[in-house]
Design goal:
Layout: H1 25-36, E1 52-62, E2 79-88, E3 103-112, E4 123-126, E5 136-139, H2 144-155, E6 159-160, E7 163-167, E8 179-182, E9 188-193, E10 197-202, H3 211-221, E11 232-237, E12 247-255, E13 261-262, H4 263-272, H5 278-298, E14 302-304, H6 306-326, H7 334-349, E15 354-356, E16 368-370, E17 376-378, H8 389-392, H9 399-413, H10 421-439, H11 447-468, H12 474-485
Antiparallel strand pairs: 1-2, 2-3, 3-5, 4-5, 6-7, 7-11, 8-9, 9-10, 10-12, 11-12, 13-16, 14-15, 16-17
Helix pairs in contact: 4-9, 5-10, 6-7, 6-11, 7-11, 7-12, 9-10, 9-11, 11-12
Length: about 500
């Protein structure tokens, strides 16, 4: 990863309980899920016990009940259960914060009488009672047969229970593509089909329009080549539960960029070899600007005046103060960092305004792919998972995306010891120059806004690293030192 990961704190209203297709199913799975779910990398509530579960939706994608005419050996017959389950966990109450009904997770459970040795790593447990008594349940995505079921549902636009699959019929989805589970995921899960498509399944789901489908669809209509166009997608329609918002995006199938290099890994590789990365950084800046420009054409923009900027600055200031309380190493720099936000507030008070638009929202080198021809693509438009969906979909200045990428170059430079500070400086400059080639405006010509967003990002990184990766704490602290003591560093043309 090129920058700190995020943990979920967003809230969503809890829908009414639903009738189980197999009465007693969730109760019988409860003890197994309590042990298995917190161990998953994509589980957002780590550090807090699971006190119970609520069923949001349950669908048999492949029947699990034995049929009289089924003559195959019991161990060979696999069923697939799709569950949306709300995990109830205690929360430390925060004054003024709404009650948290628990995060909702998408589970795809394979069901067999016996588990073949090749699927042993996917084991969740053996069910002792209820409708699946005597069966074994496991993480279904590890089973190629069950992964095939998902692709076929998307290919045929299946509608099963609460689940509905849709697709862009202009893109052909062949049958029989061999599935391969991607094992490096964190907040979600992905399956590659025949090196042709990749299916991203959202593990923690919230109601509403997911930007990871919304924005790529928008960009495909704008014929923007920098983002793979969705070929198919799966949603849950929970209108029968009378939920406040019944639409949940569950997964998106997109073309797999075979042979493409992850931007973070590519930067580290070239840096370790002493190879120049400025041409790639400049091309990445152009690609970012192409995406921003296409989003501006397609979606409304807003003007941020003094009230909006004051709210923005207040949020940044609050995050700085909270981080300084939690991380003593940050405290000596807090006064200097405050000046970044104060300078932005001063410009707003003088009548300065900024344009806000839809952006990527969590941009860094790890969210970019370079194909063998040298062309860059941007992926993963979900935004920061820790933010509520409504906030992730709000228009924001493009400086937020740009600041995220600038911080990513800094993180890459610190992969070497001693850090390659000059490498980061030239890459940052090349990226901004490339952005200006397309957008017409160099981000460095608005140093106050860019410094404020980069400072806010670095403060977040300090807090994250202090809590989760203390060995990485010097990386954002070096940026904090620069931003607090030399406001003009790396922000002038």
């Amino acid at each position: 990863m090129s920058e700190a990961a995020t943990h979920s704190t967003a809230t969503s209203p809890a829908p009414p309980p639903v009738a189980e297709p197999m009465p007693g199913l969730l109760a019988s799975l409860d003890p197994l899920l309590r042990e298995w779910l917190p161990r998953q990398r994509w589980f957002a509530g780590k550090g807090r016990p699971v006190t119970g579960f609520g069923l949001v939706a349950a669908t048999e994608l492949l029947p699990v009940a034995a049929r009289p005419d089924d003559t195959r050996p019991g161990g060979a017959k696999a069923g697939l259960l799709h569950l949306l389950v709300r995990a109830h966990q205690p929360l430390v109450p925060t004054q003024g914060a709404p009650a948290h009904p628990g995060d909702c997770y998408q589970l795809l459970l394979g069901v067999r009488e016996t588990l073949p040795p090749r699927l042993a790593p996917a084991l969740i447990g053996h069910v002792t009672d209820g409708p699946l008594a005597g069966r074994t349940v496991y993480e279904g995505l590890h089973d190629p047969r069950l992964a095939d079921v998902l692709l076929e549902a998307l290919r045929t636009e299946a509608h099963i229970g609460d689940l509905r699959c849709e697709r862009d019929t202009r893109l052909a989805i062949p049958e029989g593509l061999v599935p391969r589970l991607v094992t490096s995921e964190q907040s979600n899960s992905s399956i590659v089909y025949g090196d042709t498509f990749i299916l991203k399944l959202f593990r923690r789901v919230v109601p509403g329009a997911n930007p990871d489908l919304e924005l790529p669809l928008t960009l495909s209509r704008e014929e923007c080549p920098r983002v793979p166009a969705p070929a198919a997608w799966m949603v849950a329609d929970l209108s029968r539960t009378a939920a406040p918002d019944s639409h949940h995006v569950l997964g998106v199938l997109q073309p797999f960029l075979h042979g493409a290099a992850d931007g973070w890994e590519l930067a580290l590789s070239m840096l370790a070899k002493g190879e120049d990365f400025t041409a790639e950084a400049r091309a990445l800046g152009r690609a970012t600007a192409e995406v921003h420009t296409a989003l501006t054409r397609a979606l409304p923009t807003v003007t941020l005046g003094r009230p909006q900027l004051e709210s923005l600055v207040a949020g940044m200031t609050e995050r700085l103060e909270a981080a300084a309380q939690a991380v003593p190493a940050l405290r000596p720099y807090a006064p200097g960092l405050h000046t970044a936000f104060e300078a932005l507030a001063d410009l707003a008070a003088e009548g300065r305004t900024w344009t806000a638009q839809r952006i990527h929202g969590d941009l860094h080198l790890g969210q970019c792919l370079r194909d063998p021809g040298g062309e860059w693509s941007l992926i993963d438009f979900e935004g920061e998972p820790s933010k509520p969906l409504a906030e992730r979909r709000m228009p924001q200045p493009v400086a937020r995306d740009i600041a995220g990428m600038l911080r990513s170059f800094d993180y890459a430079a610190h992969s070497l010891q001693p850090p390659a500070a000059d490498w980061a400086t030239v890459c940052r400059a090349a990226y901004c120059s490339g952005y200006a080639d397309v957008a017409g405006d160099d981000p460095r010509t608005d140093p106050v806004l860019l410094r404020a967003y980069e400072t806010d990002k670095a403060v977040y990184e300090v807090l994250y690293e202090a809590r989760h990766r203390p060995d990485w704490l010097p990386v954002p602290l070096a940026a904090v030192h620069r931003l607090a003591t030399d406001p003009g560093a790396d922000t002038t043309p």
